[in-house]
Amino acid sequence: MAKTLLITGASSGIGAATAKAAAAAGWNVALLARSGDKLTDLANEIGDAALPIQADVTDRGEVTSAVERTVDRFGALDAVFANAGTGVNNPGIETGDPQEWHDMIHVNILAVLYTAHATLPELRKTKGNFIVTGSKAGREHFKGSVYSATKWFVHGFAGNLAEEMREFGGRCCVISPGMVNTEFFDEPKPTKLQPEDVADAVVFALNQPDTSAVREIHMMPND
Ligand code: NJP
């Protein structure tokens, strides 16, 4: 029977590319994001293996109900890709906008916790895999960057969650890319790293045998 992967931030970029790559590798995919039309188009492209679920990951109730719908449709949950994220660059704390800090902390930190909280009971049953999108910015320091600080949280959390999941045979991996060619930035940035490259790395982590736990994948544009 096909295994099932729930992806947050599936409407574009890394999440959409991972949905296609995982489906091509034989996984069922539950697709979460706020942009329902984009999810419907993606699900139509993938076919019966895809379940589009419009959900805001900062709403705990919507995350919980998305997990229930996924298990109702596919029978189990074998893996999660907590990938939804948002970022605003500003030159420093003195000039930063506290509302933007709030939004980044809500999506990049709290929503990752909500996603883990809602999915762990299912992943415990399947000895599943929780993969989360960190960042090169979560391994280095940048002047006044709240975005970078949220990704440092993600890296710390992933390591601790890996230890928690290990107790029931589960696994946790953090993917930390450098700059990727997605809609993440208001203006396109010059980078060679493509969302499909990151998607292939996620599928690699997903398809490890039971004997192996890939804990972190750090990848950079080859330029
Ligand atoms: O960007 P983009 P990426 N509820 O903008 C979703 C990290 N990263 O693929 O809700 C639900 O194409 C949004 O969906 P929608 C980055 O931090 C990137 O590059 O429809 N979903 C969309 O599907 C992030 O964690 C780079 O607007 C919400 C997705 O998030 C991850 O990669 C480098 C949401 C964003 O897709 C994917 O970003 C790096 C909400 N409240 C790490 N808010 C890079 N691109 O260079 C947002 O190191 N989304």
TrEMBL record:
Listed InterPro entries: NAD(P)-bd_dom_sf, SDR_fam
Stored Pfam families: adh_short
Keywords from the named record: Oxidoreductase
A Gene Ontology molecular function term of the record: oxidoreductase activity
Keyword Oxidoreductase among record annotations: yes
Residue stretches spanning the membrane: none
PANTHER family: ALCOHOL DEHYDROGENASE
Family the UniProt entry places it in: Belongs to the short-chain dehydrogenases/reductases (SDR) family.
Protein name: Short-chain dehydrogenase
Lineage, highest ranks first: Bacteria, Pseudomonadati, Pseudomonadota, Alphaproteobacteria, Sphingomonadales
